[in-house]
C-alpha cells in the first residue's frame, strides 16, 4: 500500500468515516507492516493530543460562559468552583472539571463515576428546545440578541446579517445559515426561508424536515441540499447529497418532484405547481478517445502520453526541468448553445494526489477567455471569497473585481497561491449573445489546465454549435503572487468549482 | 507507613497516567463521543482487578490491555464508520514501543499546542477548532467552511503533521529536554 493511501485510510479512521472495504485494507496493512503501525501511531497520537486540547478549551469556555442552562455536570462543576471561592474563576473551574473527573473517581472507587464534560452537539429533547446554535463563524445577527454557540433558539424569526451559523434542531437536522439570511423557525421539523441561502443536512432520523419558501416546499428525505430565495421569492434548490422532494406552491395540487444528487430545481412563484428543473445531467461524451479538436496541449513532453477515459482525463505527472513550466494545458472545447440565456452550473472536481503536495505552494488558476467585451459594471458578480486564494484568470478583454487576499487583481492572467484547500466557488461567465459569438469557435472559454491531476468530470455536456465554452485549470509549483511571509506549507485541493453561464443582463 | 491497598495504588497510578491512557483510547476509538465512557470503564475495570496488578510491571502496559478491551466493547455503540479496529490489530498496536513513546509525550505536547495551532493558516486553524474544539464532524465543518468533506479531511491531515513538527521543534528547544527512550519495559498483561 502506498504511503499516500495509508495516510488517507488512517485519516478516515480518525475521522470516524472509514467504511468497508477500505477498513479491511487498513487492517491488512497494519497487521502486515510495522511501518504502517508506526505511521498509525504518529497520526493517532497527534489526533489524541488535539482531542485533549479541544476538551481543555471546551472546559474553559464552559466555565467562563457560566451558562445558566448548564444544569448538568458542567453547571454543577462551575457552581462548585465558585463555592470554593478560588481566585481565578475559570482556572478553578478547569481544575474542577478535569480534577474532579479523575480525583473524585479515585475517591469513589465504585459505581459509575462522574463523566468528564463533553461538547454537546445535540439539543436535549427533554428540554423542549426547538433548536440550538451549535457553531458560529463571524456571525452578526440582526436584532437585539447576538446568538452565541450553545444558545437555544425557539420558534420565531431569525435573521443573520453576515457570517455563518449552524442550527441543530431537536429533530436532528442541522442547518447552516449563510448570512445574509432571513428565516422563521416553525418547529423542530420545519422552517421558513424568507430570503437568503441555507444548507440543511438532515440525517436519516430527521427525514421529513421541511424548508418552506415563498414559492414552495422542500421536503428532505435524509440528505444535504442548498436552498436559496432571492428578493423576488424565487427559490432555487440544489441537492448536494441524497434526495429531496420539491413541491411548487403550497396547495399541493401536484405531487412533489423527487430530486437526487446533482439536480437542481427552481420554484418560480407560489402559483407554479411544478418546479422548473434547471439542472439536468450534462454529458461530456467524447472523452473516451483522444480528439485533436477537443484537446490541445502546451508544454507537454511529447513522450508522456495522455490517457483519456470516459468522463475523465488523466494527465501524467511531469518532471520539472529545462525551465519548462510544469503545466499541462487541456482545452476542452464544447458547445453550450443550449445553455445560452439560461443559468446553469457545470461542476468539475479535481483532486490532487497527496504525494508531491506536502509543503509545496501550489497554484490554481481558472482561466476565463472570452471574445465578448461586455462593458461590465465594476466586475463580474463572482462569488469567490477573498480568502479562498482561488483566482479567476481573465483574458485581456474581460473585467474582474476579484480580490485575492485583500488585493485587487489586474486584468490579464492572474495567479493565486493556494495555501489551503480551495472550497467551492463560482465564476459567472457572461457570453455576449451576438451573432458573431454564435458563429465563432471561441466565444467564452474557461480553460482547465492540469498538472498531474486527474480530472473526473462528473457531468456530461451535450455538444452543439457555437458559442463554445471550455474549461481550463492548472496547478503550477512555486510561482505567483502571495503574501509576504507565506510559508508555502499547506495543500492545494480543488473541489467542485463551478462555472455559471448566463446571458448578459440576466443578473445573478 | 502502612502499604497502600491495591485499589488506591492502581487508582493513583491511573490518575498519574491519565493523559496517556486517554490518549491511547482517543487514538484507538474513532468516535470521540465514546472516549470518556471508555476511559471511565477502563478505570472501573482496573479498580476491580487491582489485586492482580504486579508493581514490578509497567502499569501503562497493563492499563492499555484493559483499555483495549473496553474500546472493543464500546465499538458496538459507535456511530457508523466510528467502529474501532479489530482486536488482533489493537493488540499489535497496543504493545508497540511507538505507542508508549508517542503517548508519553502527550502531557508535554499539550503545553505547546496552542502556540502551534496559532502558527497554522487561519482557514486551517478554523478547521482544527471546528473538529477538535467544537467536536464537529468533518462534513459539518466542511459546510461551515464552504468546503467539501474531502478538503477538510486533507486539511486535518496536514494540520496534524504541521502541529507535530511544531511540537517537536518546541520540545527540542526546551532546556533539559530529553526525548523519551525508544524502548520501554513493556510486558503484555
Characterization of this structure:
- The complex is a heterodimer of chains A (508) and B (189).
- By secondary structure, chain A is α+β, with helices and mostly antiparallel strands.
- Chain A folds into three domains: 76 residues, no CATH class; 153 residues, Jelly Rolls; 196 residues, no CATH class.
- Chain A is 18% helix and 31% strand.
- Chain A contains six helices and 28 strands.
- In chain A, the strands form five sheets. In chain A, strands 1, 2, 3, 4, 5, 6, 7, 8, 9, 10, 11, 12 and 13 form a 13-stranded mixed beta sheet that branches. A six-stranded mixed beta sheet of chain A has the order 14-15-25-17-28-23, with no helix packed on it. In chain A, strands 18, 19, 22, 24 and 27 form a five-stranded mixed beta sheet that branches.
- In chain A, helix 1 crosses helix 2, helix 1 runs parallel beside helix 3 and helix 3 crosses helix 5.
- Chain A is globular, with a radius of gyration of 26 Å.
- Chain A starts with a helix and ends in a 6-residue tail after the last strand.
- The relative contact order of chain A is 0.08.
- Chain B is an all-alpha fold and 189 residues long.
- Chain B has two domains: 91 residues, Rna Polymerase Sigma Factor, Chain: A (Orthogonal Bundle); 68 residues, Winged helix-like DNA-binding domain superfamily/Winged helix DNA-binding domain (Arc Repressor Mutant, subunit A, Orthogonal Bundle).
- Chain B starts with 5 loop residues before the first helix and ends in a 16-residue tail after the last helix.
- The C terminus of chain B is likely disordered.
- At the A-B interface, helix 1, helix 2, helix 3, helix 5 and strand 1 of A face helix 1, helix 2, helix 3, helix 5 and helix 6 of B.
What's the helix and strand layout?
The complex is a heterodimer of chains A (508) and B (189).
Chain A (H helix, E strand, L loop, with lengths): L2 H12 L7 H11 L1 H32 L7 H12 L4 H20 L22 E11 L10 E2 L2 E14 L4 E14 L2 E12 L8 E4 L2 E5 L3 E6 L5 E7 L1 E6 L8 E4 L3 E4 L8 E4 L27 E3 L2 E3 L17 E4 L8 E8 L10 E9 L20 E4 L8 E2 L2 E2 L7 E3 L7 E5 L4 H5 L4 E4 L6 E3 L11 E4 L1 E5 L19 E6 L6
Parallel strand pairs in A: 5-6, 18-19, 23-28
Antiparallel strand pairs in A: 1-2, 1-3, 3-4, 4-5, 5-8, 6-7, 7-10, 8-9, 9-12, 10-11, 12-13, 14-15, 15-25, 16-26, 17-25, 17-28, 18-22, 18-24, 18-27, 20-21
Chain B lengths: L5 H11 L1 H11 L6 H14 L10 H17 L11 H8 L2 H8 L1 H13 L3 H12 L4 H8 L3 H25 L16
